[in-house]
């Protein structure tokens, strides 16, 4: 896994960072912690510039998050119901889940977009109810850009600091990323198999 990401970074440079970060937010096969962390190591070795790395990472993150926002905005709150009713098992959600997260979004206001950019489990999916609630695009983009920029600074900075321990770190990053993906997949399969719709 580490070699794969390093190859993308070496071949694609900043465009590779944009593509990986966009994919990470649309369908997360590779954690942003790994992408930006290795990008930070590339900065420490003089192969990348920190400013361009942060710009590429933030652009990719905003693109990926905007895909979910646009889907939510297109289908709207009620427009999503037939989709959830039909594909709820594979999404492992039912309509009550959608209602709950939408209520939460409305109750907490736009600041939740910014805060959730620092939460690995929710920073992407929160874009969907933002779109369904028709949050103004400019507000969504400002909050998303601000949150992801700060998050990427933290990750890239960690990569720079840890570069001197790369040999030791490399032993764990690949297996950890693979183990994370396997765990997520296993949990998803478990959710699909055991999922039952709640009564209306």
TrEMBL record:
Coiled coil: none
This protein's GO CC annotations: plasma membrane
Topological type in the membrane: Multi-pass membrane protein
Entries under Pfam families matching the protein: VTT_dom
Subcellular location field: Cell membrane
Transmembrane segments: 12-30, 50-71, 140-160, 172-190
Keyword Transmembrane listed: yes
Keywords assigned by UniProt, alphabetized: Cell membrane, Membrane, Transmembrane, Transmembrane helix
Domain VTT: 30-159
Organism superkingdom: Bacteria
PANTHER family the UniProt entry points to: ALKALINE PHOSPHATASE LIKE PROTEIN, UNDECAPRENYL PHOSPHATE TRANSPORTER A
Name of the protein this chain belongs to: Membrane protein DedA with SNARE-associated domain
